Amino acid sequence: MRVTVDRDRCSGHVRCAALAPQVYRLDEEGYAAAGAHPVPPGQERPAERGALACPEGAISVSR
Ligand code: F3S
């Protein structure tokens, strides 16, 4: 599984990283690190919850 963060949509709500800190990292400006990131083993559920929690719909999940 991997997650992809659309930097154009991210507004820095940080709900993703709060729910799944091992999946979503923040950049130096406090936005979720953009691009595609592999989900570590065992983090699939938090990754999905973090994606669903984003109010901007900035995260997509692919398997
Ligand atoms: Fe950005 Fe959404 Fe996370 S706005 S910081 S991707 S909760």
From TrEMBL:
Give the UniProt keywords, A-Z. 3Fe-4S, Electron transport, Iron, Iron-sulfur, Metal-binding, Transport
Q: Which domain of life is it from?
A: Bacteria
The answer, when asked if Metal-binding is one of the entry's keywords, is yes
What PANTHER family does the entry give?
Answer: FERREDOXIN
Q: Does the keyword Ubl conjugation apply?
A: no
Source taxonomy: Bacteria, Bacillati, Actinomycetota, Actinomycetes, Micromonosporales
Q: Which SUPFAM superfamilies match?
A: 4Fe-4S ferredoxins
Protein's name according to its UniProt entry: Ferredoxin
InterPro entries annotated for this entry?
Fe-S_cluster_ET
Q: Which GO terms describe its molecular function?
A: 3 iron, 4 sulfur cluster binding; metal ion binding
Q: Which residues cross the membrane?
A: none
Required cofactor names = [3Fe-4S] cluster
Pfam families reported in the protein's UniProt record: Fer4_15 (PF13459)
